[in-house]
Amino acid sequence: MSERMSERTDEQSAERTAEWTAERASDAAGGQAATAPSGQPADDAGPALLSVTDLSAWYGEARVLTDVSVTVAPGEVATLVGRNGAGKTTLLRSVMGLHKQVKGAVALDGRDLGRRSPDARARAGIGWVPDDRGIYASLSVEENLLLPPVVHDSAWSMEKVYDHFPVLAERRDFPGTKLSGGEQQMLAMARVLRMGSRLLLLDEPSEGLAPVIVQRIGEIIREIKAQGVGVLLVEQNVTFARSVADRHYLLAQGQVVEHLSNDAFAARESELLTHLGM
Amino acid sequence: MSEFIQYTLQGLAAGGFYALSALGLAVIFGVLGVVNFSHGACYMLGAVIAAVLLAELSLGFWVALVVVPVVMFGFGVLMERLLVQWLLALDPLYNFLLTFGLTLILVEAVKLRYGVSGLPYEIPAGLGGQVTVGSVNLSVYAIFACVFSVVVCIAVGLLMTRTRIGMIVRAATEDAGRTRALGINVGRWVTPVFGFGIALAGLAGVLAAPTRAITAEMGSNFIIILFAVVVIGGLGSILGAVVAGFLVGLVEAYGVAYAPAYAQIVIFVLMAAVILVRPSGLFGREEVA
Ligand SMILES: Nc1ncnc2c1ncn2[C@@H]1O[C@H](COP(=O)(O)OP(=O)(O)OP(=O)(O)O)[C@@H](O)[C@H]1O
Ligand SMILES: [Mg+2]
C-alpha cells in the first residue's frame, strides 16, 4: 500500500518536473531576462549566495522534504510558496542547522555548511526570522537588537535601525513582547540586519498583519534587496510574494513542484492558487 | 507582636537560603534545561565543607564564605563536563535521574566519612547574640544571613540585567535554540552557568551552617521545598525564584510558629493555590505552562 503510494508520488513529481522544464524553456524563448539571474539561476556560473541541493528532511520516520534544491543569489528574493504543512518552515530550519535530521547539502557562498552549528551559520551570515518572530520577552527592544554579534561590515548601525524603524527607538526600553505583532516583525528583521546577515530567511513575515504594515515590510525587503542581501521568503500571501520576489519555488508535500519567474508566476496566479489549495 | 517580628526575621533568613539555591536551580534549568535534583546535596556539601574547613584546617566562617562557592563552582564544572553534558541531547529525564543518583552517592559518601550525627559549627564571632530594636530582640546572625542573601541576589540580578553575559543567559533561558540561531555560542556558557548555579547552592549551605544541624541528610528535605519554591516562582524565572524563596521561608516560619503540625503542609497548600490561579507560577511566562 505504502509502496504504491510512493510510486504514485514519483510519477507525479516526474510529470511536474517536465512541466517545470517546459516552463523554463518558454521563459528563455520569451527572453524575459529582465534582471540578470532571474529566469534560470540554477544554471548560473558563479556560486549562489545560498544553494540547497537535494535536501531531504525527516521527523522520526516521517519524511517531510524530498530532494529539495533551491538557490538564492545576492540581491535576490526567492519565495517558497506552498500550503500548510508543505515543509517550508522545516526547510528554513534545516538551512539554519536547527533541524538536524537531514540529508543533502546546504552551501553558503559555494562553501558547504556540512554539520556546522546554528550559531556558526548565523555568524557566517544567515539571519533567520522565525514564523513567531522569536522576540525575547525578558529582553528589552534594544537588547533584542544588541543580542546577536555583528558578523559583517554591511551590518546596520543602531542609528540606521532606529532611523528606519522609529517605533523601535520610541519603545527601546519596552520588553520585546510588549510590541504589537507588526512591530515585533520589524524588530525581528531589524535584529538580523543589525547583525549584518547577508542572507535572510523570512518565515511568513506578512502573516496576521494589517495591509499597511505588510506594505511597509515589502518596502524594507526591496531596500535590503537593493543592498545586495539575498532573501529566501516563505509566504502564503501570494499577492505580497509577487510584489517583492524575483522567483518562486512552489512546494507541495515536501517537493519543489514548480520553479517560476515572477512574471510566469503572475500569469498563472489563479491556476496556481487552486493547484496549491490556497 | 515582637514574636511576629522575630518569626518574620527567621523566615526571611531561611528564605535567603531558599532564594540563593533556587536562583542556582533556575539558571541551570534555564540555560541547560536540566532539573538538578542534586541541588539539595550541593547545599549540604556547602555546609559540610564549611564544617570540615573549620575542624581540620581551622578556617572559619568568613574564609568558608569565599572558599566554598569556589570549590563548589569547580565541583559543578566537573559534574557538567564529566556527566551532565553527555545526556543533554536526550530527554531531560535522563539528567534528572543522573542527578538523583548523584545525590544518593553524595549523601552516602558524606555519611560514610562523617557519620550521621551532626557536625559542629558555631555562629562566627561578632555575629552571635541578639540586638534589641525597640522592644524586640533580634538574632544578629539572622539579620546578617538575611541581608547577605539579599545583597547576593541583587548582585546576581545586576549581573543578569546589566551585563552582556546576563543578557545571553536570559535569552538562552527563554529559548536556547533560537539564541544559537542568532549567532551566540550558547554551549560556551553552559559549563560556567552550571558551575555558577552549584556555587550558589554551596553558598546557601555555608550561610545555613551556623544555624542548622549539618548532616548528610540536610539536603533531602531542602530539595523538596526548593522544588516548591521553583514551581511557585515560575519554572525558569530568575526573579520568581528569589521572590518565592523568601515567600516560602516566611510561610514556613509562620507555619512552624503558629501551626507546627501543619508547617510543611502549608508550603504545599501555597504551591497548589498558586498553580490553580497562575499555572505557570507567579513570574512564569504563560508559554512555559
Ligand atoms: N516537530 C515536529 N514533529 C513531527 N512532525 C512535524 C514537526 N514539525 C512539523 N512537522 C510536520 O512536518 C511537515 C512540514 O511542516 P512545516 O512546519 O515545515 O510546514 P510549513 O510549510 O511551514 O507549514 P505552515 O504553512 O503551516 O507553517 C508537516 O506535515 C508537519 O506536520
Ligand atoms: Mg511554517
UniProtKB/TrEMBL annotation, chain A:
Origin: domain of life: Bacteria
Range of residues in the leader sequence: none
Annotated SUPFAM superfamilies: P-loop containing nucleoside triphosphate hydrolases
Gene3D superfamilies tied to this protein: P-loop containing nucleotide triphosphate hydrolases (3.40.50.300)
Location of the region described as Disordered in the Swiss-Prot/TrEMBL record: 1-47
Biased composition (Basic and acidic residues): 1-26
Keywords: Amino-acid transport, ATP-binding, Nucleotide-binding, Transport
Keyword Ligase: no
A GO MF term: branched-chain amino acid transmembrane transporter activity
Keyword Cell division: no
PROSITE patterns in the cross-refs: ABC_TRANSPORTER_1 (PS00211), ABC_TRANSPORTER_2 (PS50893)
Comp. bias (Low complexity): 27-42
PANTHER family assigned: HIGH-AFFINITY BRANCHED-CHAIN AMINO ACID TRANSPORT ATP-BINDING PROTEIN LIVF
Family note: Belongs to the ABC transporter superfamily.
Name used for this protein in its record: Amino acid/amide ABC transporter ATP-binding protein 2 (HAAT family)
Organism expressing this protein natively: Humibacillus xanthopallidus
From TrEMBL, chain B:
GO terms (BP aspect): amino acid transport
InterPro entries membership: ABC_transp_permease, BCAA_transport_permease
Pfam families noted in UniProt: BPD_transp_2
UniProt KW Membrane keyword: yes
Membrane topology value: Multi-pass membrane protein
GO molecular function: transmembrane transporter activity
Subcellular location, record wording: Cell membrane
Keywords, ordered alphabetically: Amino-acid transport, Cell membrane, Membrane, Transmembrane, Transmembrane helix, Transport
Residue ranges the record marks as coiled coil: none
Superkingdom as given in the UniProt entry: Bacteria
One GO CC term, this protein: plasma membrane
TM annotation in the entry: 12-35, 47-73, 93-110, 138-160, 189-210, 222-251, 257-277
Annotated family: Belongs to the binding-protein-dependent transport system permease family. LivHM subfamily.
Protein name from the UniProt record: Amino acid/amide ABC transporter membrane protein 1 (HAAT family)
Record organism: Humibacillus xanthopallidus
